[in-house]
Amino acid sequence: MPLVQMSELSQSEEDLQDPRDAQGLVDAQLLEAMEEGAASPRSSSSSVSSSYSACAESLLQDARHLMMTDLVGFLLLKYRRKQLTTRAEMLSIFLRAYQHHFPVVFSQASECMQLVFGVDVKEVDPRGHWYVLVPTLGLTCDGMLGDGQSMPKNGLLVMLLCMIHLEGERLPEEEVWGALSKMGLCAGREHYIYGEPRELITKVWVRVGYLEYQQVANSDPARYEFLWGPRAHAEISKLQVREYLLRVNRRGPSSFLVQVPSLSEEAASDEEEGA
């Protein structure tokens, strides 16, 4: 299950309106035709039937993807406003006849919120299906800078903290930029979600205490590395990181840039040590 393309979430604040105010996520007749085609191809030719079914299924996945991006936009709006939401409220976004897509779309949207934006969608009232949106790993920073109108940026911070942890508490700067380049993040180039990444990583998050950025001892020419900052140590435990990585690893290699090693034994070891 691929993550949402970040470019689809780069709307300005005025463009991120409540999706329920729109005409709909997809054309109802198109979606109905796609569902019928995926479920019961009518051609007598087996080869044509197979091709038609595959095309219909692909279009159906595209339609679900559109629903997911709209649901993410709705959840971002709720996060900015620090408002709870309900399953019923989220269901109201969908066309009435296609609410059976909600479980899959909600799962995909929740994954995107966590990995891209560093926001967890947590159910706080199972009977009423109320949900709260909170920073991943219990970070006290909400991930929004300045006036709070920008995209949440904690997804990138969580990824860096995990990479540092997996590397053995110190991560060479060149490895950071090598990984980030795969996401289209380059120093000096403005990104539609994270802004200018070098400023964010080496200054903003260092200033607030989540990262340390220091020269490697005795390096000539000078090389630099990243470590967890004091605020990260105060807010996050090793066990939390291991549990988070286990959840991410279960989703498959496309969910995270870092190849996670076998963590179950390490998590058990840390639990015994009281980490």
UniProtKB/TrEMBL annotation:
Gene Ontology CC terms: nucleus
Ranges for domain MAGE: 70-263
Highest taxon in the source lineage: Eukaryota
GO annotation terms (biological process): negative regulation of transcription by RNA polymerase II
Entries under Pfam families matching the protein: MAGE, MAGE_N
Region described as Disordered: spans on this chain: 1-20
Protein name: Melanoma-associated antigen 10-like
The species this protein was found in: Camelus bactrianus (Bactrian camel)
Lineage: Eukaryota, Metazoa, Chordata, Craniata, Vertebrata
